[in-house]
Design a protein that fits this description.
Elements: E1 2-4, H1 14-33, H2 35-46, H3 50-66, H4 68-78, H5 80-98, H6 104-122, H7 124-128, H8 131-134, H9 139-168, H10 170-192, E2 220-224, H11 227-230, H12 236-239, H13 243-272, H14 277-305, H15 307-327, H16 335-362, H17 367-396, H18 400-420, E3 426-430
Helix pairs in contact: 1-9, 1-10, 2-3, 2-13, 3-6, 3-17, 4-5, 4-17, 5-6, 5-10, 9-10, 9-14, 9-16, 13-14, 13-16, 13-17, 13-18, 14-15, 14-16, 15-16, 15-18, 17-18
């Protein structure tokens, strides 16, 4: 059992790490999800099918996910101060090259492969490798705040990209995105990035290691439910031999299938239902804002209710969002808004829950590598999902069947988290 005191008035540097991550992830994922807006402009210019254009995004997902183990290892060894600026430079260069692309194969190489590599170095799995090390009692909440930057990036960047494409064209808009990546992400992480609290003589959640005091009235405790498991210094070799590892990988696969497949095609689906593209982009921004709220809310709820219950609640809300999207062509009214709010809240939960669940089970010196390999399951689902959704739309002329499949996928994702059972390893309880 570990007992940590509240940190009082002393400011904890971990919150600086969270703040820098908030900005970095907001920009990185604003670029990521802006492809859903560029998607229509690129199809219009080149005349590609939706499946072909979606496959570029699928290659992007595969690249950033399957390079995750390398990213995780690099983060474990060198930390964000070096790795994230390198990723930002790679991404910025690729965006410039994409702005000059004239063929599908150039999109595959510059955006799909190399931009995906850049995002791998500065994105979700990269941050998930080091943020959990800074917090234990407030792990879900802290990760939720950091990841909420993703939603705010979507809220501000997506509508700006839509306006930029309308006013300046998609090529010039990509150049502005490259400038934002280079001008903001690089200096912030060079100045403020740190690998772990141990570098600053701190313990998770704060307070100097030589000033630890425990008060019965102010302390919380992490109750270790399985001391043998929790006491293991997990390596990748050991983790892959456990059922929990594969349950997590399966959950990420099915969850990412739903989230990435829906996010990429949601603007197109709303336009198909009769909404103008500018309104569809507006609701996508609302979805991003709801996603930010979902990240903070479900990060907190996962600490309070437990990871399994919080994840299942998020799955139900995600399914309600999908239902609103399916009904949108027949029932306009509030359906676009309800879709944006419901799906945004549910989708937002994944960002704090996936790394928190994984850290509860496999936290240790090799956690970055272990989590990155688990995320490969998410990468596979996130690459297959958008392609299959686009293919079904091309074949049937409708997104209905594709989104119906997503109901089963989100159910499997929730089930596998229960089977992994993070609360059977450790959980936070109020000290009495």
């Amino acid at each position: 059992m570990k007992i940590y005191p509240r940190t009082g008035s002393r400011f904890y540097y971990g919150w600086v790490i969270v703040g820098v991550a908030f900005v970095t992830l907001g920009i990185a994922f604003g670029v990521w999800y802006s492809f859903s807006v560029f998607f229509l402009a690129v199809i219009k210019e080149f005349g590609w099918s939706r499946a072909a254009a979606s496959s570029v995004f699928s290659v992007f997902i595969i690249s950033q996910s399957f390079l995750g183990p390398i990213t995780g290892h690099l983060q474990d060894r060198f930390g964000p101060r070096l790795i994230i600026p390198i990723g930002a430079i790679v991404l910025a260069i690729c965006l410039v090259l994409v702005s000059r692309a004239t063929s599908l194969w150039e999109f595959y190489i510059f955006y799909g492969i190399f931009a995906g590599a850049g995002v791998s170095l500065l994105g979700f799995s990269s941050h998930s490798a080091f943020i959990p090390k800074w917090f234990e009692r407030k792990r879900g909440f802290a990760i939720g705040i950091a990841m909420s930057g993703i939603g705010l990036g979507m809220l501000f960047i997506i509508p700006l990209v839509e306006r930029g494409i309308t006013a300046l064209g998609w090529r010039t808009t990509y150049l502005f995105l490259a400038a934002a990546v280079l001008g903001l992400i690089v200096p912030l992480n060079l100045i403020f990035g740190r690998k772990s609290p141990a570098e600053m003589n701190l313990i998770p959640d704060g307070q100097a290691a030589d000033e630890i005091r425990v008060s019965d009235k102010s302390a919380f405790r992490v109750r270790v439910m399985d001391p043998v498991w929790a006491g293991e210094n997990w390596t990748l070799k050991g983790a892959v031999r456990t059922g929990r590892f594969w349950f997590l990988l399966g959950s990420f696969f099915f969850g990412s299938w739903v989230y990435q497949g829906t996010l990429l095609h949601s603007i197109s689906a709303m336009v198909d239902s009769g909404l103008p593209s500018e309104k569809a982009a507006f609701y996508f921004g609302i979805l991003g804002l709801a996603g930010s709220a979902g990240k903070i809310l479900f990060g907190y709820l996962s600490d309070v209710l437990g990871r399994e219950k919080a994840n299942s609640l998020a799955g139900i809300i995600t399914a309600l969002g999908l239902l609103c999207l399916l009904l949108m062509s027949e029932l306009h009214g509030l359906m676009p808004f309800l879709f944006a709010i419901s799906f945004g809240l549910g989708y937002g939960a994944a960002a704090p829950l996936f790394p928190s669940v994984s850290a509860d089970i496999f936290i240790g010196n090799s956690f970055g590598l272990i989590f990155a390999v688990i995320c490969m399951g998410g990468g596979l689902g996130g690459s297959v999902g958008p392609y299959v959704v686009g293919l079904i739309r091309d074949i049937t002329g409708s997104y209905t069947a594709a989104f119906e499949i997503s109901f089963a996928s989100i159910a499997f994702s929730c089930l596998f988290i229960w089977l992994a059972g993070p609360s059977k390893i450790r959980k936070l309880v109020r000290y009495r």
